[in-house]
Design goal:
Structural class: mainly alpha
Helix content: 40-55%
Number of helices: 24
Largest sheet: 5 strands, mixed
Distance between the termini: 103 Å
């Protein structure tokens, strides 16, 4: 006490941080990104406007898109778990997102899926399509409430990005990160569909935010918070297992200079793991074995491969450039420019360690592992890292905005306006969005397939066109699980591809229609899955009269005798002698 009293400079020196505490590492540099002491109401105005814009865009897309390929399994699995407490329908995906999406169905007079007499479940794809499209409640009435739940998660994602960006880098960075999220076509494409993709885009960065709370202030309570974040992500989608090595790397980096004692490490690690397991046990309704079965199925599916299409070529195995090509073609060019600039200038950032360790490293690891996988059917599989990319751009944008120079602000404004125009032009066809690098927008069919382009989303659009032209029926080669009759479409199936057999209307006679139209999904023209690539080779010499949403091609066969002879042959192959005779 005497020494301190005799030396005021020692008495005034702040205490040394406790071992393992790295608050300075997780906090913004006061000189460059001082966080506000309080948020003023006027600061919330751009946030509220952006969230409102996001909600409007998502609602428009949800009303436009018919049921897509992957929605039925999510709804039937979640509804069955709510009703029975058993998760034995399609265990490949964890149940949290499915429970959220199917929650509104509990308030509708929906019939539950039934098991076999021996207690086993029928094949889940046909079962799920039957549940959604042959239930007591019409499919559109079931889909919209489920989609509203996902849209709510999308708005939460935007609000979370603003909050975390604000905490890490200051107010301008949070708003810019939210702006990037609002104007991103991949977020808009999957932020209104009843699938698991948007949910993991929220819970993956949320888990990192929970870990950052522990890294800044290590304690048993914050270790539990980190474990809850990890458990929620693991209960959302199988790809969240990559958070395990990410957690370990970030903690090792954080502790590289001041490692905790062995006892502290075990105590905090045990608390984190126990919290994660508690979340998983709760979400799986006590059946933790189902979680490990889910992990096994994800690993098996990734290793077994899945037929994919890249740059005009079909393959059953993955390509190391698949996600790179998809990323470059399906993101707005202004966003790519900002992201590349942020990566190049990260060394000049006062937050370079934070950005590199917490944002760039998880993104690169996730991207690298996905590129090595044989499961490559859509850029949506990279959705978990997109919020991190938005924060990287937000950090750069915040630095440029705080310089208060007109040139950087003008550049940010112009690039943002470019993105806004891009989104307005694409609305509401976000699933099939491609940027200007492909040239002709209708040439997207030459680059990527499946959920990048054609997920069966244009049936409602087709029905509107037929009604406007007064056409009562159509030849239809559709890729998807939706029932065209649920959207008012009468049709004759032509190499139809669905998880449940669709016979259309065999009595339909199109000779009296103003035009004989053949609608073909882009997936079938590409030859992905079935039919074979040669099935529609005869259409290559014919120009489509319209392309709906870049993914559904319409051909006018009214006076095309050769086309009708080919249709007669196809109907005979499909054991439809009546339509074959008419053709």
């Amino acid at each position: 006490r005497g020494i301190i009293q005799d030396h005021p400079e020692i008495r005034q020196r702040p205490p040394s941080p406790a071992i393992g505490r790295h608050r300075d590492f997780m906090s913004p540099d006061p000189a460059s990104a001082r966080p506000p002491s309080g948020t003023r109401p006027r600061d919330l105005l751009p946030v509220a406007l952006l969230l409102l814009v996001s909600s409007g865009l998502l609602a428009g897309a949800a009303r436009h898109d018919s049921g897509i390929m992957d929605e039925p399994p999510n709804l039937v699995a979640g509804h069955y778990l709510w009703k029975t407490g058993h998760y034995n329908i399609d265990r490949e995906h964890p149940p949290l997102a499915r429970l959220i999406e199917s929650l509104p169905l509990l308030f509708l007079p929906v019939e539950m899926a039934q098991s076999n007499p021996d207690g086993s479940m029928p094949p889940y794809w046909p079962l799920s399509v039957e549940f959604l499209y042959e239930n007591t409640v019409p499919a559109p009435r079931m889909l919209m409430p489920a989609r509203l739940m996902v849209m709510g998660l999308s708005v939460l994602l935007g609000a979370f990005l603003w909050w975390w960006g604000n905490q890490l880098f200051g107010p301008p960075a949070g708003v810019i990160a939210l702006l990037m999220c609002t104007l991103n076509p991949l977020i808009l494409a999957h932020g209104h569909l009843a699938t698991t993709d948007l949910a993991i885009a929220l819970t993956f960065p949320l888990a990192l935010a929970c870990l950052s709370k522990y890294a800044g202030h290590p304690s048993t309570r914050n270790a539990v918070v980190a474990g809850i974040g990890l458990g929620v992500a693991l209960a959302t989608k199988g790809s969240a297992v990559l958070l395990l090595p990410i957690y370990l790397f970030i903690l090792a980096w954080t502790w590289r200079k001041q490692p905790p004692s062995g006892w502290v490490f075990l105590k905090h690690g045990g608390a984190c793991l126990a919290a994660a397991l508690a979340v998983l046990t709760t979400v799986y309704w006590g059946d933790l074995g189902a979680f490990f079965a889910s992990v096994r199925e994800v690993l098996f599916h990734s290793a077994a491969g899945h037929e994919n299409y890249l740059l005009g070529r079909l393959s059953i195995s993955g390509s190391p450039i698949y996600f790179l090509v998809a990323f470059l073609l399906k993101n707005p060019i202004p966003f790519l420019i900002l992201l590349a600039t942020a990566a190049l200038l990260v060394r000049r950032s006062p937050h370079r360690e934070l950005v590199s360790v917490w944002l760039i490293f998880p993104s690169l690891l996730f991207f690298f592992v996905a590129s090595l996988s044989d499961l490559q059917i859509g850029l949506r599989h990279l959705l978990p890292i997109f919020p991190l990319l938005f924060l990287i751009v937000g950090e750069l944008g915040g630095r440029l905005w705080r310089q208060k120079r007109p040139a950087p602000r003008l550049v940010l404004g112009l690039l943002s306006a470019w993105m806004a125009v891009d989104i307005a032009v694409a609305h509401p066809h976000y699933i099939a969005y491609f940027n200007q690098l492909i040239g002709d927008p209708d040439s997207a069919i030459d680059y990527l397939a499946d959920s990048n382009l054609d997920w069966g989303q244009e049936l409602r659009h087709l029905d509107d066109l037929l009604r406007d032209e007064g056409i009562g029926g159509v030849y239809l080669s559709y890729f998807g699980n939706a029932d065209p009759e649920a959207y008012g479409i009468r049709y004759l199936p032509v190499y139809y591809e669905s998880s449940r057999e669709r016979l259309g209307d065999p009595t339909l006679d199109l000779r009296d229609e103003a035009r004989a139209l053949l609608a073909v999904s882009a997936t079938h023209l590409q030859g992905v899955y079935r039919p074979t690539p040669e099935a529609f080779a005869w259409l290559s010499s014919r120009e489509p009269t319209a392309i709906l949403g870049r993914s559904l091609f319409l051909y006018d066969l009214t006076d095309d005798e050769d086309a009708h002879r080919r249709l007669a042959t196809i109907f005979l192959e499909q054991q439809m002698p009546g339509p074959a005779q008419i053709e």
